[in-house]
Specification:
Its cofactor is FAD. This is FAD-dependent oxidoreductase 2 FAD-binding domain-containing protein. It comes from marine metagenome. Keywords: FAD, Flavoprotein, Oxidoreductase. One of its GO terms (molecular function) is oxidoreductase activity. This protein is of the alpha+beta class. The protein has 2 domains: 126 residues, 3-Layer(bba) Sandwich (FAD/NAD(P)-binding domain); 160 residues, Succinate dehydrogenase/fumarate reductase flavoprotein, catalytic domain (Flavocytochrome C3, Chain A, domain 1). 22% of the residues lie in helices and 23% in strands. The chain contains 7 helices and 18 strands. The strands form 6 sheets. Strands 10-11-14-13 form a 4-stranded antiparallel beta sheet, with helices on both faces. A 3-stranded antiparallel beta sheet has the order 1-2-3, covered by helices on one side. The chain is elongated. Bound molecules: flavin-adenine dinucleotide. Flavin-adenine dinucleotide (FAD) binds next to strand 1, helix 2 and helix 7.
Length: 333
């Protein structure tokens, strides 16, 4: 059952209009207070690009769960609520398009690539690969033209690759399914392969000499025993050279993962209109409300700074919604 709209009477939220997604049947539910908690919009590419028009020319991937379509943002906005900081979206750098998606929109998050060397679509290194987070790695990729890169590994490194998708994990666990990951490396059209660096470069459509120079130079830094690569400052302790065939190049593109902006609320999680006046009996919590309030994380977040405020704002919204409905004393009173 999907919420399609809020029912507002005399400026007060009194319930929701829903639709049964299988039958199309409409049903209204009434309540003394309503809490919206429909999550983010990082799996709605149109909405991501609407809020980050600068990324329109580039390949950007959808990367939250399938329900993170931003329905709630539209529903709250239609009821008069205000959205804020919608362009503050957290992008992962380490993702390739999911070849199983006929629309080419969804991405697969790739991990276990500690020794990968990143080169841009022209075959040049451009970044300290150690800094692969949203505030560093994604930004560096977005500064390339086009905003993509190849993450190159060799045959000794493929054993560590994991894919953040249940299909590539043993059923019901987060343990990698070795055969399925190996299959992905062999069949994805977004992965270049080669038994030599020359054939890899051809598969990547990059001049052979350029790729060879880039990899030879990187390998020479490791051979020389320097602590950091002099080009981009990557710490080299424990890093492996790219030298054992077969070689793979994964075509990374920025993947929208989390939303830092959303529905603007006050400290009681009451939804605010464009004049920052509350909409009576309407509350919003979680990622829909930028984790809390509209933008509690600011522009950046660390892994783990979403779930906490989502839960916390849910408790606050729930307590004040109950209070508005005549139960309890609200939160922290
Ligand atoms: C793969 C992944 C890993 C993550 N890992 C971490 C982590 O390690 N640490 C961390 O802090 N954060 C992490 N996050 C972020 C965090 O999980 C989310 O920010 C958080 O779960 C959001 O919680 P929520 O309850 O607000 O929304 P959600 O968990 O997204 O729940 C919203 C629900 O509403 C449903 N919904 C949407 N629209 C409608 C509608 N119209 N009608 C009815 N239902 C609707 C959705 O289907 C969904 O079930 C991760 C996110 C992803 C995608």
């Amino acid at each position: 059952t999907a919420v399609k709209s809020l029912i507002i009477e005399d400026g007060r939220a009194v319930g929701v209009r829903t639709e049964n997604v299988k039958t199309g049947e409409s049903q209204d539910y009434f309540a003394k207070a309503t809490v919206m908690g429909t999550g983010g919009f990082a799996s709605n590419l149109d909405m991501v690009l609407e809020n980050r028009p600068d990324l329109r020319p580039h390949r950007i991937l959808e990367g939250s769960h399938v329900g993170a379509k931003g329905d709630g943002h539209h529903v709250v906005q239609e009821a008069g609520g205000t959205l804020t900081h919608m362009g503050d979206i957290w992008f992962y750098s380490f993702a390739i398009p999911d070849h199983r998606d006929p629309n080419g929109r969804r991405g697969l998050v790739i991990r276990g690539m500690a020794d990968a060397v990143w080169v841009n679509m022209q075959g040049h290194r451009f970044h300290n690969e150690e800094l692969s987070g949203g505030g560093s790695g994604s930004k560096a990729i977005m500064a390339q033209e086009p905003a993509q890169c190849w993450a190159i590994i060799d045959g000794t490194m493929r054993e560590h690759v994991t894919v953040g998708d249940p299909y590539y994990q043993k059923e019901g666990t987060a343990v990698r399914d070795v055969e399925k990951v190996a299959e992905l490396l062999e069949i994805s059209p977004y992965i270049g392969r080669g038994s030599t660096l020359e054939s890899l470069a051809k598969d990547m459509n990059i001049p052979v000499d350029t790729l060879k120079e880039t990899i030879d130079r990187y390998n020479s830094h490791i051979d020389s025993g320097v602590e950091e690569d002099p080009d981009f400052g990557r710490p080299l302790a424990g890093r492996q050279k790219i030298e054992q065939p077969p070689f793979y190049a994964l075509n990374y593109a920025p993947l929208a993962r989390k939303n830092f902006g959303g529905v603007k609320t006050d400290l009681r999680c009451q939804v605010l209109d464009k004049n920052y006046q509350i909409i009576d009996r309407l509350f919003a919590a979680g990622e829909l409300a930028g984790m809390a309030g509209g933008h509690i994380n600011g522009k950046k977040g660390l892994e783990g700074t979403m779930l906490g405020p989502c839960l916390f704002s849910g408790r606050i919204a729930g307590a004040w919604a109950a209070q508005a409905a005549g139960f309890g004393r609200g939160f922290g009173t």
